[in-house]
Amino acid sequence: MNIIATYHPPGKDYGHMKIDEPKTPYNYEVDMVDHSSELNPEELAERIKIAAEKPPKILEDESDSSDEEEEHLTEEEKQKRKEFEMKRKKHYNEFHALQLAKKLLEEEEEDDDDDDNYIVPRTTV
């Protein structure tokens, strides 16, 4: 009984909180299914036949769509697009440039190490 008196003071109700939330509203319209929007089997077969004749969208050539987009651009927008593409190419080429610079630095350090091993002859006067 000491434990109850110590860890469970009167008026304190542990683990039994009252949650004051409204009930989730029930949507009664979901039960009333509209059967008039059902798909006709013949119409479905026709759609499948048409879709089977087309190539998958993932295999379509993207260059066609980009050409169509460029037709609608103004000269200023075309110029901005070219500048953006050039900046993007430069950005992705920076990685290769950094790799080349790192390689050159390593080669230079190797050359410096070789020079350090070389002993300069002393001249006496």
Automatic annotation (TrEMBL):
Which residue intervals make up region (Disordered)? 51-85, 106-125
Point to the regions of Basic and acidic residues compositional bias.
51-60, 75-85
What Gene3D superfamilies does this protein's entry cite?
Answer: 6.10.250.1050
Top-rank taxon, per record: Eukaryota
Give one Pfam family, short name only: IPP-2
- Matching InterPro entries, A to Z? PPI-2
Q: Which residues form a coiled coil?
A: none
- Write out the similarity annotation: Belongs to the protein phosphatase inhibitor 2 family.
Q: What is this protein called?
A: Protein phosphatase inhibitor 2
